[in-house]
Amino acid sequence: MKLMALLVVTSVMGASAWLWHRIPPAPVAIELQGPIPAQTRLSSTPRAQFTPNTRKGYYSIDVVGDFTIPSTKKIIFNGAGRNLHVDQDRTKLFRRGFSAVERSRMVPNVEVWPDENTPRGWQSKLSISQRAYIVYRNYFTQSFGLAWAENSEKAPETIYKNTSPTATDKNNIYQACVELRGHCYYFGDCGPNGNNWKATFGTIILDMENSFWIKHEQEHANLHTFLMKTLQENVSPETELGSADLFAHNSFGYSRAIDYTAQPDALFRLPAKHTTTSRQRGMPDEIVGKSPSDYTDFLMPGTYYLYPEMNYAERHLYDGDRHWLAALLGEQEVNMKMSTKKRIAWQWLFNQQNAEFANNAQANHPAPPAIAEGTAIFYWFTGAYGVMFWDDHKDLIPDQPLPTDPNERGLGNDRNYACYEHYIHGLWRIFGHHSDLFNGKETYLNEATECSYDGGKTWYGYNANQIKTRDLPFARAIVNGNQILVAATKAYAQPNQKSQIMVRYVQNGYQFYTTINLKGDEIYLGRATMKRAGVR
Predict the structure, then answer these.
(1) What is the pLDDT of residues 460-476, one digit of tens each?
(2) Is residue 211 part of a domain?
(3) Hey, is 222 helix, strand or coil?
């Protein structure tokens, strides 16, 4: 399970520690000189008409029709309930916004063979790009005795590679990586020569999460660097490789001002170098000076929601308060400044378990409609590459009776999964109508999205924390040629609450102004063709 939000770092770090860092000043208001130019009306993106599911252990994947995401993006399904629709149409998942499926959710004997006795000539129905695999820590701990995968303090005693030609001990990182290449068996596409086999997944994600509290930073960085390099040597040329431990900075979902001036995390910034025992344990000289990110294709900044983000009655406007949209955008805004690597976030539509927070001991609170839909829309305005859509439950059995064990209530089959419907609806709204804008030529404005909250007198480019702490509507824009796509919302607004925000784009010869009227916490999405400055 992903634990990105499990560690409550802010509760153990005193507030005084935050004050050691410089808080960036708020952007200076840009005052408009003269009257507002003629405005351009945005064309609102349609909404599908559907009644959200009320059954337990069920959701409809048909709340929208067919659509696919652009080839420049990736959405991997590792959620719950594919069994609800796979017998009807195995391919439907790929026509509802998902581009790949994790191995544990694949259809046996059709998409993946369940064991190594693959019939001669059998091949998976999935292309390599449609295959994904999460390598959890138990692969290393249970199969290869690598306790370091669970406990970073074991780094100084972990073996990189057996250097003796007669050694048979499998408890080393090299052997664990080499044996992953045998996964080509399960798809029927191993080559004739065993020495040339490669793991034929389109995406492999390492999920050990042993990097939160690091005692032996250098040893830890060395091991991760060797691990990622060795994995790269044993996967298909088509495979993209990443790790849940790799991001420039983890804000743990808090979207604080201090995150915007943070230094990169230790694992990201420390290059490998020899220690007193690293050579004896098989660390090669060739990785010296390299870091884990040198051998990864994407980074994984992003945090699961906790219950406070889903509770409209909570506070959401102070620096240390949790806020679904500020967290979603903030993690990306901070990380994109530290690295140009592609980004894939984990997304889960239920609250992460965390006993430090009230109502958070179990993952039994689904994302409310606007949060589920908004997550599927606003995330893509950050320029991110992909998503690992995750759930702690696999198959769903609808309409089960109330569990006799109170600890099981609200979990698994006892949950309402309408949040999935709202999420898929969000994907359909952005990609089912605007895929043409994601062709690699688009510009993501992010914090440079200029907004006015006083009818056009002054304009600001705020980051997610600044919008949160000022209790303002959010807006983000994407520009591609003369096309502009804008998403906006007033997070946590009451149903009849009305808000207004203006957005403009006055660059590259364009002079675009528009006004967006919001009701409640609706997720607004609109598009317009911009006119050149001076053109009526």
Answers:
(1) 999 999 999 999 999 99
(2) yes
(3) helix
According to DSSP, residue 413 is labeled G
Q: Is residue 480 part of a domain?
A: no
Least confident of 56-65, 196-205, 416-425: 196-205
Expressed as residue numbers, the domain containing 251 is 120-257+267-300
The residues, ordered by sequence, that sit 6+ positions from 91 with a Cβ below 8 Å of its Cβ are none
Q: How far apart are the C-alpha atoms of 319 and 26, rounded to whole Å?
A: 13
What pLDDT, in 10s, does the model give residues 4-13?
A: 444 333 333 3
More confident residue, 533 or 134: 134
Residue 370 contacts by C-beta under 8 Å, 6 or more apart in sequence? 422, 489, 491, 520, 521, 522, 523
SS (H, E, C) 466-517: HHHHCCCCEEEEEEECCEEEEEEECCCCCCCCEEEEEEEECCCCECEEEEEE
Tokens of 417: 């999964």
User: What is the pTM for the complete model shown?
Assistant: 0.94
Residue 199 within a domain? yes
Helices (H) and strands (E) in the chain, counts: 11, 18
**480 bridge partner residues:** 483
User: What is the SS3 string spanning 4-52?
Assistant: CCCCCHHHHCCHHHHCCCCCCCCCCCEECCCCCCCCCCCEECCCCCCCC
Domain count within the chain: 1
Residue type, 163: T
Question: Quick check: is 435 in a domain?
Answer: no
Cα–Cα distance for residue pair 51/40, rounded to 1 Å: 33
Q: How far is CA 468 from CA 28, 279, 506, 527, in A?
A: 17, 50, 25, 25
